[in-house]
Write a structure and sequence with these properties.
With 117 residues, the protein is an alpha+beta fold. The chain has a domain at 7-87. Helices cover 38% and strands 16% of the residues. Strands 1-2-3 form a 3-stranded antiparallel β-sheet. A hairpin with a 2-residue loop joins strand 1 (7-15) and strand 2. The longest helix is centred in the middle third of the chain and has 14 residues, at 71-84. The termini are far apart. Residues 99-117 have a biased composition (Polar residues). Residues 96-117 are annotated as: Disordered. This is Phage tail assembly protein.
């Protein structure tokens, strides 16, 4: 079972004495996605995420928690869900295209060599 690293929340979820400051997601199987469409999840549709996130989040969160979630946190969790729907090769290619797999960590994101004239 593939899981994400804990995803820190900008705004913790509070339920009584329980405070959730980070959420770990497990890779869903097809049955976990029932009641949604893959396209809705890829587009990070709020209704689709409200259905799926409570099924795959650790610690357990509710649909109400998702509805009250900070938009930045919902976006972060939605990106992880969308990533689960891609094949590993497609995900690696997408990360390469946005520059997440830099081999030289000392080089900043804007340190590309300008093209030759």
């Amino acid at each position: 079972m593939q899981t994400t690293k804990p995803i820190p929340l900008e705004t913790p979820i509070k339920r009584g004495d329980q405070v959730i400051t980070a959420v770990t997601l497990r890779r869903p199987d097809a049955g976990t996605l029932r009641g949604t469409t893959l396209i809705d999840l890829m587009q990070m549709d709020v209704s689709a995420l409200t259905i799926v996130l409570p099924r795959i989040a650790m610690p357990q969160i509710t649909q109400q928690d998702v509805r009250q979630m900070d938009p930045a946190d919902l976006n972060a969790l939605g990106q992880e869900v969308a990533g689960f729907l891609l094949k590993k090769a497609d995900l690696a290619r997408a990360k390469t295209e946005i520059g997440e797999t830099t081999t030289d960590s000392s080089a900043g994101p804007n340190s590309e060599t300008p093209p030759s004239a």
